[in-house]
From TrEMBL, chain A:
The keyword ATP-binding does not apply. Belongs to the bacterial solute-binding protein 2 family. PANTHER family: D-ALLOSE-BINDING PERIPLASMIC PROTEIN-RELATED. Residues 51-305 form the Periplasmic binding protein domain. This is Sugar ABC transporter substrate-binding protein.
From TrEMBL, chain B:
This is ATP-binding cassette domain-containing protein. The keyword Nucleotide-binding applies. It comes from the Bacteria. CDD domains: ABC_Carb_Monos_I. Gene3D superfamilies: P-loop containing nucleotide triphosphate hydrolases (3.40.50.300). The keyword ATP-binding applies. Coiled coil: none annotated. Residues 8-249 form the ABC transporter domain.
From TrEMBL, chain C:
The chain crosses the membrane at residues 12-35, 41-60, 93-113, 120-142, 170-194, 215-234, 246-262, 269-289, 295-314. GO terms for cellular component: plasma membrane. One of its GO terms (molecular function) is transmembrane transporter activity. Pfam families: BPD_transp_2. It is found in: Cell membrane. It comes from the Bacteria. The lineage of its organism: Bacteria, Pseudomonadati, Pseudomonadota, Alphaproteobacteria, Hyphomicrobiales. Keywords: Cell inner membrane, Cell membrane, Membrane, Sugar transport, Transmembrane, Transmembrane helix, Transport. The keyword Membrane applies. Part of the binding-protein-dependent transport system for D-xylose. Probably responsible for the translocation of the substrate across the membrane. It is a multi-pass membrane protein. PANTHER family: ABC TRANSPORTER PERMEASE PROTEIN YPHD-RELATED-RELATED, XYLOSE TRANSPORT SYSTEM PERMEASE PROTEIN XYLH. This is Xylose transport system permease protein XylH.
Length: 343, 262, 323
């Protein structure tokens, strides 16, 4: 019964806000939205436009959940713009942002995923008086491009923190396993991890896999297993997603080194949380994507109404989840699935 | 020689496509143990005629009789079931499949019962080899050999032999020799004579008068969708036939022109 | 002897032996050839192999199915949402997942047969449609795109049992190879598959129901993909809409390595099996060498090119007349 009610509830939510968004993104994707005005300017009656990540990713679905919940609480309307096809994001995002700016928004909430194409546009928007708030990505850029603030995390710092935890935990040779080589955000986590380990004078190995295997847990298991066999000094594994974390756990068990290899991961899932509870995985790092969305809307509301906003970057992560706080996380993740960005 | 009753008769057949006449008042018949040569240049209406005879097209006007009965084929499959087999020059066989598998395609012999029936490859190979050997192809000794390893003439023989094995009474052969060299063509022509001796009625479509004259019993020349001439073996010389096919123009003149081009 | 040399799987067999020996030497001391190392690459190959066999047979009939990737993920999500969100027992949920896989296959088959559009494009579209629908409905129903699976002992025994480190998926793979191999080489239907891909006009002319042949193969492919989705889901206790995306191209690749002609009409299940095993050895073995893993795809690409060249040679040999 509860299931059906939830279903109806979420269906209603989608139809209320989601439909307009879907139509908007569809129109933008086709390039059908005309340029109303060549010169961008903030319009008091214009919409609040959010340019953020693809909703097919659990992470951004949680960000969106934060936007939605805050919008309801603060009685704000916004339009969510994102790609649906992730094949050409580097060129699609600047185009989406350009189109959003040309619609004279009251405020822009932007995930600055691809600075090369997006930063000049943000400068253009802020110069024209459109208030811009950056979320998720763009930690190092927001102060220069005239944005009012940044809400999110720094992938390098996240990896660095993981390296520090491993070093403190006694790891002598750490493996950073990257299942999506070529993604700069994800690679920055491994760079941070390696730097932190190096700072402590410890050894690291960086491993990637073929691009076709990024979502195949079996392939990741065999890849990590092979590396552990080839390097029997490895006593720490850091993975960048919840799926490879489970593969790493099984690989460690299969090579007979359970309990000798410290496993940590970015992101989380119920399986990872259960493994943390059982002591098989040491920690998971939560970026708290929900907060990135929620705080963005809250800040937008307070800025537009009262001119108030936080000074400096607001970091939402990483929140380290280990044995000490796993129970609460697990409880929330089961009760409010999707809020944590994975389940 | 006493002539048998016609097995397949076309009476006053016309066929139009969207107002264009492809065939006009065509009457022909073919008898068991006879080879009817259908001669004509490209565009004379030969392919349309083949399609009418083999059930792909319904004629716009006229009647078709099979063994004396008026008939309208609902589909090529029905024509085939009634014993009219068409062997096309290019689409007869599947090069990357074995001789035995090609021969029995669509009518595979099986062993076993129910869902556990399987293809009796040994039997298929044996019969296929036996049949093509009967028509003089003895070079192929392994039924598992791929058809792609056979020569063009051998493939034609395989396809025609297959049609005969499955009970064809009328064989429509669409340009079976035109893509072949002299030697290969003679293999096929020899085979056609043999099939005739077994009492099959053959419609031999060709634009090669020499090949037609070598085996034909009756001849029909098709020009612009009409039968321009009909005659029997020995009634006309090769030159006369060539002139007929060229549509009345003197073939010798055309040949002179060709020489001048050189 | 010559008949052995003409078999489509010869190239893959030679490549498999050479590659295996190469890795046995290159990974010396790392345990690649040990029982556990062997179980590792077999586990990887098995899951790919179960779906690669029908995909390869479909390719022999002249068609592609690129929608398998999404069907794997969709099946795992169907089981996950049905069991954890609606509290459905696992077996009906598995039945539902397999049914959906079959329906995706049926839809592909009907679309390809009716429209005569290239299946490469039709199933590429289906691939997007299925993963989009999976994510959309998962989000709508449970607000997730990956979810836990509530399994049972019997389901675990059938889909995730292990002997040592060898998964039961290896047995399923062998079973699929035996059934697929028997159907393709020993039955009338198998003859029709070759004929449909070899020369569709001639096959139709000989009375082969080419449309039915294709639709049946599309359905088998969809069911096999859903089966792998269930297998991965139960094994990892979790459904994920992105499972299987790698198979979209890996499955046709192993079929081609195994001697299946890209344009159809030629190939064998034994070849597909060996091609998959070869893929398993390469993509697992390279990690046991301890080399820089950035090179793995280069390595895979070179081996793929070599295997395809070898196959081309074998096929030319088979077509050489004994004149």
């Amino acid at each position: 019964m509860r299931g059906i009610l939830d279903y109806l509830n979420s269906a209603a939510r989608i139809s209320r806000r989601g439909l307009g968004v879907a139509m908007l993104t569809g129109a933008l994707a086709l390039g059908a939205v005309p340029f109303v005005d060549m010169h961008a300017r903030a319009d008091d009656d214009g919409p609040i436009i959010v340019v953020s990540g693809p909703l097919s990713w659990p992470f951004f679905a949680a960000v969106k959940q934060g936007f939605d919940d805050a919008a309801e609480i603060f009685d704000v309307d916004f339009q969510y713009v994102a790609v649906t096809d992730t094949a050409n994001m580097t060129s699609d995002y600047p185009r989406l942002l350009q189109q959003a700016i040309s619609r004279n928004p009251r405020m822009l909430l932007v995930g600055e995923f691809f600075p090369d194409g997006m930063d000049p546009l943000i400068k253009e928007a802020t110069a024209a008086g459109i208030p811009v708030l950056i979320h998720n990505s763009g930690q190092t850029l927001w102060e220069q491009n005239g944005s009012i603030g940044f809400i999110g995390e720094d992938p390098y710092q996240m990896g660095f923190k993981a390296g520090q935890i491993h070093a403190e935990g006694g790891v002598k040779h750490g493996l950073c396993f990257n299942q999506v080589p070529g993604n700069p955000t994800v690679e920055a986590r491994c760079t941070g991890y390696v730097d932190a380990m190096k700072e402590a004078g410890l050894e690291t190995t960086y491993q990637t896999i073929g691009t076709g295997d990024a979502t195949n847990p079996q392939a990741m298991l065999q890849a990590i297993k092979g590396t552990l066999q080839a390097n029997n000094t490895i006593d720490g594994v850091y993975t960048l997603n919840a799926v490879p974390a489970m593969s790493a756990l099984r690989a460690v068990q299969e090579v007979g080194r359970a309990g000798e290899v410290m496993i940590g991961t970015a992101d989380l899932s119920n399986e990872v949380l259960e493994a943390i509870k059982a002591g098989d995985i040491a920690f998971a790092m939560d970026q708290q994507p929900y907060l990135q969305g929620f705080l963005s809307i809250q800040t937008a509301k307070q800025y537009l109404d009262y001119g108030l906003h936080p000074i400096g970057a607001v970091t939402t992560g990483p929140l380290v989840i280990d044995k000490s706080n796993v129970d609460k996380t697990l409880e929330v993740n089961k009760e409010f699935s999707g809020v944590r960005g994975a389940s | 020689m006493e002539r048998k009753q016609p097995i397949l008769e076309l009476q006053h057949i016309s066929k139009s496509f969207a107002g264009t006449r492809a065939l006009e008042d065509v009457s022909l018949e073919v008898r068991p143990g006879e080879i009817l040569c259908l001669l004509g240049d490209n565009g004379a209406g030969k392919s349309t005629l083949i399609k009418v005879m083999s059930g792909y097209h319904e004629p716009t006007a006229g009647t078709i009789r099979l063994e004396g009965d008026e008939i309208a084929f609902a589909s090529p499959r029905e024509a085939r079931q009634r014993g009219i087999a068409t062997v096309h020059q290019d689409v007869g066989s599947i090069p990357l499949m074995s001789v035995g598998r090609n021969f029995f395609l669509g009518a595979e012999p099986t062993k076993g019962v129910g869902p556990f029936r399987w293809f009796d490859e040994a039997k298929a190979n044996e019969i296929a080899l036996e049949q093509i050997a009967r028509f003089g192809i003895t070079r192929i000794s392994d039924g598992n050999q791929l058809v792609g390893t056979m020569s063009g003439g051998e493939r034609q023989v395989l396809a025609i032999g297959r049609a005969m094995y499955f009970g064809a009474k009328v064989l429509i052969l669409d340009e079976p020799t035109s893509a072949l060299g002299v030697k290969e063509a003679s293999v096929v022509l020899r085979f056609m004579r043999q099939a005739r001796a077994e009492g099959v009625a053959i419609v031999f479509i060709t634009h090669n008068a020499r090949h037609a004259m070598a085996v034909g019993d009756a001849f029909a020349v098709l020009i612009h969708g009409k039968v321009a001439a009909r005659f029997s073996r020995g009634e006309k010389t090769r030159e006369e036939v060539l002139n007929l096919m060229a549509g009345g123009e003197q073939m010798s003149e055309l040949e002179e022109d060709l020489e001048n081009i050189h | 002897m010559t008949s052995l040399l003409r078999r489509p799987e010869l190239g893959a067999f030679a490549a498999f032996i050479l590659t295996y020996v190469f890795f046995a030497i290159a990974t010396h001391g790392a345990g690649f050839v040990s029982i556990n190392g062997t179980a590792g690459w077999l586990n990887l190959a098995a899951e790919l192999g179960i779906v690669a066999i029908p995909v390869g047979m479909l390719m022999i009939s002249g068609e592609f199915d690129l929608s398998i990737g999404s069907t794997v993920g969709a099946a795992s999500m169907v089981v996950a949402i049905a069991t954890s969100f609606y509290g459905m027992p696992i077996w009906p949920a598995i039945g539902l997942a397999l049914l959906i896989g079959g329906l995706v296959g049926l839809a592909n088959g009907m679309a390809v047969v009716r429209t005569n559009l290239p299946s490469f494009i039709v199933t590429l579209a289906t691939n997007f449609i299925v993963i989009g629908a999976t994510m959309g409905f998962s989000r709508l129903i449970a607000n997730v795109t990956s979810s836990s699976i509530v399994s049972s002992d019997t389901a675990h025994a059938v889909f995730a049992a292990r002997w040592g480190q060898a998964n039961i998926s290896i047995l399923w793979w062998l079973g699929a190879a035996i059934v697929g191999g028997w159907v393709l080489s020993k039955t009338t239907f198998g003859n029709w598959v070759y004929a449909t891909g070899g020369n569709m006009q001639a096959a139709r002319g000989a009375g082969v129901p080419v449309e039915r042949v294709k639709i049946i193969l599309f359905i088998a492919t969809g069911v096999a993909a859903a089966f792998v989705g269930v297998l991965q889901g139960v094994q990892w206790n979790s459904g994920n809409s992105t499972y299987g995306q790698g198979y979209v191209f890996q499955a046709p690749i192993v079929a081609v390595i195994g001697g299946v002609l890209l344009g159809g009409g030629y190939g064998s299940v034994a070849g597909i099996f060996l091609g998959t095993a070869l893929f398993g050895v390469i993509s697992t073995g390279i990690f046991y060498t301890g080399w820089n893993t950035d090179w793995i795809q280069l390595f895979l690409g070179v081996l793929l090119a070599l295997a395809v060249l070898a196959n081309n040679y074998v096929r030319r040999f088979a077509l050489m007349a004994r004149r």
